[in-house]
Write a structure and sequence with these properties.
Elements (H helix, E strand, L loop, with lengths): L4 E10 L4 E11 L2 E6 L8 E4 L4 E4 L1 E6 L12 H10 L2 E6 L10 H11 L5 E6 L13 H6 L4 E2 L9 H14 L2 E4 L12 E2 L2 H6 L3 E2 L1 H18 L3 E4 L5 H12 L4 E5 L1 H5 L4 H5 L12 H13 L4 E2 L8 H4 L16 H10 L6 H15 L15 E11 L18 E11 L2 E4 L2
Parallel strand pairs: 1-4, 1-5, 6-7, 7-8, 8-9, 9-10, 10-13, 11-12, 13-14, 14-15
Antiparallel strand pairs: 1-2, 2-3, 5-16, 16-17, 17-18
């Protein structure tokens, strides 16, 4: 059933229209924005007083692991989209390292069917190579016809430069966004954390930043050589990676990139406190890298904020750091961390933050732009910017709970999501 709803006393912040205005009412009829104005009064529909909360275009996370099919004990499409909804997202893109991998139209259609009718839109990333094995190209024409918007062998890089060249050539042919997990694998074997003081202190093999930078640099050169193809660096974590992308953009290369909240909040020092819960891929880096990421977010080098939401069963994480799985859940904490560590300290204006969390990822995937205008679909994230809260296990809607952020005191949270004629409110 499509909602009818009147939102009172909203503050609209919309990058698509450059609108930043408070004291507005939004009338929603049958899931669409019917009217925007001051002191609206209507009969017979639900009224919700937002008391000055921000109404923004629905947030979109372009890097989410839903685990279905194959690892439903970690996450399902149903539980992952519920986590997204509660975290303030009205759209996500699911990554292809499922079992089987998203290498053909059958798996795409399975995910589409399971996600149909959800408040949260689910875009789909297919593989670059068949079954993510790096040996032969995935059937990109088939993937495109089935609705795939992006390709990646996420979880590992395409190791062969020649194969990556062919990936980019075919991605250009079908206008797919080619997204790389940047890791030179010969340099990261058995390395659970960043190479540096902490790895030395703990006696662990370190994962050098240059292992990430080498693949970023290689792929930028290949993108430049192939020409006309769109290339995207996933979960970038290093200061040199920021510089490589910035320089490539200045030369006109079609390169974009994303960062995760854990890479602009935590350093590798967190490993000493949280152990395997701070084991990420790529690993947590240093304060110098965080500082460079924040500069990259400020100057537009970094296009998007994504979570790399990576749910794992308890036994996969609560073990020694060498054998523990990489990654954490991120959908429920992303907005709170972004507001607390980027917006409130003044690193990004709210408008700039919304561009990186809503507008830019949709543009990269060539999805419809979300605009808060009369006649448009109501696709909205509602934010209480100043609400203090402590992230706890009661806020986790994911099937997994692997995160170091339990107990973190945050300022600002998502309190509602509206999309596809449906609404969710935080109680």
């Amino acid at each position: 059933m499509m909602i009818d709803l009147l939102l009172k006393n909203a503050h609209i912040v919309d990058p698509a229209t450059s609108r930043d205005e408070g004291g507005l009412d939004i009338e929603i009829r049958q899931g669409k924005i019917a009217k925007i104005g001051k002191s609206l009064s209507v009969e017979g529909i639900e009224v919700r007083d937002l008391k000055g909360a921000v109404v923004a275009p629905g947030f979109f996370d372009m890097h989410v692991h839903l685990r279905e099919p194959g690892d439903e004990h970690k996450e399902t499409i149903e539980s992952g989209t519920r986590a997204a909804m509660s975290g303030g997202f009205t759209g996500i893109c699911c990554m292809p390292n499922t079992k089987p991998a998203i290498s053909d139209a059958f798996v795409v259609s399975y995910i589409k069917e399971k996600a149909h009718g959800n408040l949260v839109d689910v875009a789909i990333c297919g593989t670059m190579t068949k079954d993510r094995e790096g040996e032969q190209l995935a059937p990109m024409d088939q993937l495109v016809r089935s609705g795939v918007r992006m390709i990646s062998d996420d979880g590992g890089a395409v190791r062969s430069a020649e194969m990556m060249r062919h990936v980019l050539e075919y991605a250009r042919m079908f206008d797919l966004l080619a997204t790389q997990h940047c890791e030179e694998h010969t340099m990261t074997v058995d390395a659970p954390i960043n190479e540096g003081k902490v790895s030395t202190k703990l006696g662990l093999r370190g994962w050098p930043t240059v292992a990430e930078d080498i693949i970023i640099g290689r792929d930028i050169l290949l993108t430049e050589y192939v020409g006309g193809v769109r290339y995207h660096v996933a979960h970038m974590s290093t200061k040199s990676g920021v510089r490589l992308v910035r320089d490539a953009k200045a030369r006109g290369v079609k390169v974009s990139c994303e960062v995760t909240p854990h890479h602009f909040v935590l350093t590798d020092d967190a490993v000493e406190t949280y152990g395997s819960m701070a084991k990420m891929n790529p690993p947590l880096r240093t304060q110098e890298d965080i500082d460079a990421i924040i500069v990259g977010l400020k100057d537009g080098t970094i296009d998007c904020i994504s979570t790399d939401h990576a749910p794992h069963a308890t036994h996969d994480k609560e073990t020694d750091i060498v054998t523990a799985a990489f990654g954490i859940i991120g959908l429920e904490t992303a907005v709170g961390l972004g507001l607390t560590y980027l917006v409130h300290p003044g690193h990004l204006s709210l408008m700039e933050y919304l561009k990186r969390s809503s507008q830019n990822p949709r543009q990269l995937l060539k999805l419809d732009e979300i605009r808060i205008l009369e006649g448009e679909l109501a696709n909205l994230t509602i934010l209480d910017l100043n609400r203090p809260w402590t992230f706890g296990k009661e806020h986790i809607f994911s099937r997994s709970s692997n995160t170091p952020f339990v107990g973190y005191e945050l300022k600002g949270m998502p309190v509602g999501t509206i999309n596809n004629g449906q609404v969710w409110w935080r109680t």
